[in-house]
Amino acid sequence: QNENLSIADITTESLDAYKDYINGIVILLYQNDYNISFKLFQSATKDDPTFVLGNYSLFWCSLISNNEEYQKESDNAMTKAINHIYKLPPRLSYAVKVIYYLIHKGDEDKAQKVVKMWIKQFPESLAPLNRLARLYQRNNRRSEAINTYEKIKQKDPDYINTYYALQECYLAQEDYENALKNAEIYMKHCPTDAAGAGAPRRGRR
What we know:
The chain is 72% helix and 0% strand. By secondary structure, the protein is mainly α.
């Protein structure tokens, strides 16, 4: 698989499909209007059924909208995305596959295997490490999550969200000293989020 693909190769050769896709993303991000976004993604994938990112976005939009009426079309869209996954460069391909197994199939073990393959192919990339850490965290495998977040911190000490995640993990382990250390670093860089992050304290969780 080639990392140096053109935008048309990665997305679609249909200009109408591409415009609908971009408008759908913008409306989803800035207006949170799931219905309009869903219709735009629908239109994009109707114009080009092989449009992987269009199909993936249709699935994702349906998921976060919690609209059961979208379910069948959403499932079909994710299947189409996987059927044409070869169109994507490896990094994007791995990201889509993880969501396919984790959410669409509910197979967390398979999702974790995909993430580990992603890490093996791109050892310097933070995205798969972050995904693995979050998988560990959601399964209360806190020691493994902490070790993985610490690897991310070593690779990029300026990736601030790592400190927030670490304070959550340490707090859940009742390691208040390390939780506080990481919370303080996070709040120093994101003072407006201080109230949301909160200083770790006994009794929380």
